[in-house]
Amino acid sequence: MSNALIKKSIEVAASTSSTPIVLLLEVGHIQLPLTDDGYQWAKSNIEMADSLIGSIIRNYGKHIRVVLTLIINDLEEKTSPNEHIHKITKKCRHISPRNINLFYERNLRNRAFSKIKKHFDPLRLVYNNNRVFFKGDDEICSVPIANSTSGDVFRIIPRCGLIMYCYFEKAMKMASQRLCAQNKPKIIFISFSRHQHETESVRLGYTLFQETSQTDNITAILATWKDERYSTIYNKSSVSKTWNISFEKPTNRTTSAENEDPKKWCAKGLFKAG
Predict the structure, then answer these.
(1) How far apart are the C-alpha atoms of 113 and 98, rounded to whole Å?
(2) What share of the chain is helix, strand, coil (3-state, %, to 5)?
(3) How many domains are there within the chain?
(4) 170, part of any domain
(5) For residue 45, is it within any domain?
(6) Would you tell me how many other CB atoms lie within 10 Å of the CB of residue 259?
(7) Are 21 and 67 contacting, i.e. CB atoms less than 8 angstroms apart?
(8) What is the reported pTM?
(9) Does the residue 13 lie in any domain?
(10) Rounded CA gap, 63 and 261, in Å?
(11) Element housing 90 (H / E)
(12) Is 90 exceeded by the pLDDT of residue 119?
């Protein structure tokens, strides 16, 4: 995937910021045990992020600081990912195992259990057909944040969107602390996903974080790409209620960005009208 669309989004965000900027990169997921296909995609993702970081350093220097994160899916197998990380970063110039912050899904899911039980306003939770939905200011999210079980014991089982919300809580705090002298830096979050449903989980996690934290200093740039020729970029600032969507086609030409009304997200499986 070309980084042109992402670079343009960063350029726009940087040009409107009067404060130092932290670039928070979620460079991908590693699911354990790691398959050959999963390894190849993770390697391509890391190398693409490495190229982007090189461009950021050349164009912005120390004006933009970088925080790297990698999510490890250890729900099925709890083994060390260190060997895999060393292999996928071998050809990188700017990314090394030492500067990647690891987030483990097992830990994030445990945090999600606590969040939904203790910290979410019960009035914003909607239960329907053994699923739990979050009610935003204007819409009810059509992607469930958790499953629920009935019977003798009532249980709530967090899903990907809620797990990503917990990722955002930890990662945004980490990004803010990257500039100790700056109380409230501008944060540009970038995520790379392979499948549309993964991007929707990230979008949902970001929406939950935005709705509950009331932040106004974050720009989210979410990239979905299937190969080096095609990608979709979702771009949204904290103060915007719509996602700006750009497409990069195999012809290497980009369409003009367009604002998508949140109520149209129903067709994409994210939101529906309340």
Answers:
(1) 30
(2) 40, 30, 30
(3) 1
(4) yes
(5) yes
(6) 11
(7) no
(8) 0.79
(9) no
(10) 33
(11) none
(12) no
Q: Residue 82 — pLDDT band, cuts 50, 70, 90? A: very high
For residues 3 and 51, the answer to whether their CB atoms sit within 8 Å is yes
* Candidate ranges 106-120, 123-137, 158-172; pick with highest mean pLDDT: 158-172
Q: Which residue has the higher pLDDT, 262 or 160?
A: 160
Output the furthest CA–CA distance in the chain (Å, rounded): 60
Q: Supply the mean pLDDT for the chain.
A: 78
In a domain, 16, yes or no: no
Per the CB < 8 A criterion, the answer to whether 113 and 164 are in contact is no
Note whether 53 and 219 are within 8 A (CB).
Answer: no
Domain range for residue 267?
4-8+21-273
Does residue 226 have a pLDDT over 70?
Answer: no
Nearest one of 64, 12, 30 to 175, comparing CA atoms: 64
Cα dihedral 40/44/47/51 (nearest 10): 170
- pLDDT value of position 258: 37
Q: Give CA–CA dist 220/188, Å, rounded.
A: 6
